[in-house]
Amino acid sequence: MKEGRILDIAHISFLDMIKIMITTSGAASAKGALIRNALKTAESVSLTEYHTFNDYLKGIETATNPITMIEGKSTHHGEFVFGLKDCPFGPSIRNYMEVFEKLPDGFADFTAEFNKPSNVTDQYRVGEGAGVSPFCSVHQPMRSAFAEKIKISGRKIRIYQLGCKSGSGKKGFAEKWIKESRVLKSAVDAILNNHMCCYSLKLLD
Amino acid sequence: MKNVLIVDDEKSFLLSLYEGLSSHAADLNIHTAITGKNALEVFGSTHIDLVITDLKMPEMDGFELLAFMSKNHPDIPAIIMTAYCSSEIRKRIDALGSFRLLEKPIDFGKMVESIFDELARRTRGYLRGITLPAFLQLVEMEKKTCSLRITSGGRTGCLYFSEGELMDAGNGAETGENAARDIVSWEDAEIEIEGISMEKGRNIWTPLTQIMLEACILKDESERSKNKDGTENTIEAAMEDWDSALTDTNSGDPDPGGLTSEAEEREEEGKMFSRKLKSLFQAESTSEAEKKKEEKMTGLKDMLTEFTKLQGVYAVCVVGRDGFVIDSIARTGIDTEMFGAIASSGFGAAEAMGRQLGKGGSSMSMLEFENGPVMFAPVGDEAFIVIVADREANLGLVRLKLRKHGRELATAAAI
Fold first, then answer.
1. Using CA atoms, how far apart are residues B150 and B186, in angstroms rounded to an integer?
2. What's the rounded Cα separation, in Å, for the pair B194 and B51?
3. Phi, then psi, of B29 in degrees rounded to 5
């Protein structure tokens, strides 16, 4: 039996709400609101400690790693560089596009705003070109903030967002974080061929 | 022997003052009047050295009497008796030195002290009688509705007040704020007062105090350009002059005894008055050291500190347009992070409204609350400043400070 198209109203509302925020208080303010919301979520996560990096990777496989719990399983490509196969917002975007064919107005401005240098994107090492949609402003800071609640071998970790790919296949690279994390851009590019998101992890002293 | 005229419509009060002052009969000759009109009769027959008047009286009230004095007896000092006077307005009027305020019910000892003090100041020769700025402060304080016809040096202008608020102005060439700024800067003004027979539309939204301050600065700028050929005529330059003038005021005695001619005396008197007017808006005395520190300040924190020194300002935040605080100075109890987030939404909404209405980018927004205003102004392209103040704050001074330090703030706040 054919059910026809069923909308997830939560997805639709969320995307439209972002559009309204952009219209009523500007892309910068809307961006800030989404980032704050993501950081607030991370505040409620408790500290997780892994004895070794392998234990951390096992946490990804068993989906017990806090980061995995919000974005799904990522793949380690060596040298602490990870690729994420599916964008956690993919279902929302697909659901919306199925009905309305294109994303709401203002999303491009929002994305450009997220990619601009700012204190908060500096602090969480996100954006700077790695944003390909407004959802990146939720996902990327949230992952970085979750990482602050994780320790490996008693050491804090830090995430660098290296690149991202939109549903249309367009890649965005964070030159600043690629340079700072000393990962080759060509490696990021290659990972993004088969993944939607690429980031690196650094163990702090 | 000095002739003192007391004007009040309460006969019993007049009588009690008359009797009370009889113990000073050797120095004072007391005259009384129950209306402004009666007072004019006394002026017609007696040389008066000091007037003490109530403001609210039938027939011809205290304002009309003061206006008459500004035109016909501009050098006679006056003491005003009033039932209500906010500390802020009292401070302004006292600093202008044009006349003294005594709050009702009258403290008799204070009144005697004021009488001898005013007469002594008059004798020393540097007290002027009714001046326009002081008169305007009084109109504002008493929430009076009237129109004032101002004449000075062959020029004539009108100021329209409704319940103490300046509504409109005209000087023959311009109307509104420009005309008001021009008129309030006139010296040796003669004032005529009349009620408003027709409802007057509002054409001025800037507070009177700010207009007076701006007039003062513009006047300084004009004098500066007259005196210094080739000097850049900017608001910054005017502010520098202002600072210098304040420093002079704080450190020096006007010493009128050293003046050699009436013209010089009047010139010096005008300068001193101008300095006093400016000082009304200065939150605190600006010492030389503080001035130098202000010139040198480069850090954002230093700049924010300068804002918190302004009277009534108790929180200053520079916030990224995304709502994340770049730097702030605030009284304890203010959650600046949350405040920044909310302010970003408000500022963003104001800008969005401007865009929707085709008004362009915002230059400044102000929200007025029961307990004081919150001002927003862009700082470069990526940030804005939020200033939280109480009701006593001088918004004109805040605006000027913003204009003066706008570029430095933008540089310091640049991400």
1. 9
2. 21
3. -110, 110
Interchain CB distance below 8 Å, B348 and A35: no
Q: Which of B322, B326, B415 sits opposite A29 (nearest CB)?
A: B322
Residue A68 is assigned to a structural domain of this protein: yes
- A120: which chain B residues are within 8 Å (Cβ-Cβ)? 320, 322, 324
Nearest chain A residue to B325 by CA: give it: A119
Minimum-distance CB partner of B323 among A23, A32, A116: A32
Chain B residues near residue A24 by CB distance under 8 angstroms: 348-349, 352
List, for residues B89-123, the tens digit of each pLDDT value: 666 666 655 677 888 778 888 888 888 888 876 65
Q: In this prediction, does ipTM exceed 0.90?
A: no
Angle (deg, nearest 10), helices B132-141 and B87-96? 170
Residue A188 lies in a domain: yes
* Upper half-sphere CA count for residue B229 (Cβ side, 13 Å): 0
| Distance between CA atoms of residues A58 and A39, nearest Å | 25
Structural domain includes residue A16: no
Q: Do A119 and B321 touch (CB under 8 A)?
A: no
Residue B39 tokens read as 């007072």
- Domains of chain B by range and CATH? 2-139 (3.40.50.2300), 144-281 (no CATH), 298-413 (3.30.450.30)
Taking contacts as CB-CB distances below 8 angstroms, the residues of chain B near A122 are 415
pLDDT score for B103: 81
CB contact under 8 A, B341 and A28: no
3-class DSSP state of B216: helix
* Structural tokens at position B246: 């304040």
Please report residues of B whose CB lies closer than 8 A to that of A118: 320, 322, 324, 382, 415
Which residue segment(s) compose the domain that A175 sits in? 34-88+107-203
Instruction: State how far the Cα of A111 lies from the Cα of A131, in Å rounded to an integer.
Output: 6
Name which of B86, B97, B76 is nearest B31 in CA terms. Answer: B76
Which DSSP category does A153 fall into? T
Which strand (E) or helix (H) includes residue B319? Answer: strand B313-320
Q: How many independent structural domains does chain A possess?
A: 1
Are B320 and A118 an interchain contact pair (Cβ–Cβ within 8 Å)? yes
Q: Alpha helix locations (H) across chain A? A: 9-43, 53-61, 66-71, 90-100, 107-115, 119-124, 136-147, 175-181, 185-194
Residue A69 lies in a domain: yes
Instruction: For A129-185, write each residue's pLDDT tens digit.
Output: 999 999 999 999 999 999 999 999 999 999 999 999 998 899 999 999 999 999 999
From the CA of B333, how many Å to the nearest CA of chain A? 21
Chain A nearest C-alpha distance from B86 (Å): 39
Tokens 């008059």 locate to B122
Chain length of chain B: 415
